[in-house]
């Protein structure tokens, strides 16, 4: 709640985007557009053109679905960086083994945060999604 307490009343200084939104086939490009517009409010930051956002999103977030780019397309990178094997850290088990007690604590915490920051629509939506997900999770 540090960031909400620090910036929660100044919506122009805070952008909340969930991992689930940024990696979603449907919400991902829109979430990325929001990030670009938010960053564009900062002096000296020139975000990419709006029409390029979906392509950049797909290249960066969903690149595992495509072969790695050729060296020619990465001409701005040094040879040393090109030698680094491109891989994603977004792998691993999709299911997390939680006990009923842990799930109950998560739901309670999410609900406390919803009650503490009811005026922030993005946070409330994200937390409600997490509540729904936790409620659907079968405990171990």
Mean pLDDT: 83
Main beta sheet: strand number and arrangement? none
Number of strands: 0
Q: Give the overall shape, derived from the CA principal axes.
A: flat
Helix percent reads 40-55%
| Total helical elements | 7
- Indicate the radius of gyration in whole angstroms: 19 Å
Tell me what portion of residues adopts beta-strand conformation: under 5%
Poorly predicted tracts of residues:
79-87
User: Strand pairing plus helix content: what structural class?
Assistant: mainly alpha
**Strand-and-helix sequence, N→C?**
HHHHHHH
Distance between the termini: 29 Å
Q: What is the strand and helix layout of this fold?
A:
Elements: H1 2-7, H2 19-23, H3 28-40, H4 53-61, H5 79-83, H6 100-116, H7 121-136
Helix pairs in contact: 3-4, 6-7
Features:
flat, about 140 residues, about 50% helix, mainly alpha
Structure description:
With 140 residues, this protein is mainly α. The chain is 51% helix and 0% strand. The chain has 7 helices and no strands. The chain has helices at 2-7, 19-23, 28-40, 53-61, 79-83, 100-116, 121-136. The longest helix is centred in the last third of the chain and has 17 residues, at 100-116.
């Amino acid at each position: 709640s540090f960031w909400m307490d620090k910036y929660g009343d100044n919506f122009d200084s805070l952008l909340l985007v969930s991992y689930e939104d940024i990696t979603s086939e449907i919400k991902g490009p829109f979430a990325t557009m929001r990030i670009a517009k938010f960053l564009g409010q900062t002096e000296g930051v020139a975000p990419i053109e709006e029409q390029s956002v979906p392509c950049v999103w797909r290249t960066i977030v969903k690149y595992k679905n495509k072969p790695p780019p050729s060296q020619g397309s990465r001409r701005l990178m040094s040879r040393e960086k090109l030698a680094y094997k491109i891989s994603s850290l977004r792998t691993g088990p999709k299911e997390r083994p939680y006990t009923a007690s842990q799930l109950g604590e998560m739901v309670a915490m999410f609900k406390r945060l919803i009650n503490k920051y009811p005026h922030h629509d993005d946070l409330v939506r994200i937390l409600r999604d997490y509540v729904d997900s936790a409620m659907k999770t079968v405990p171990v």
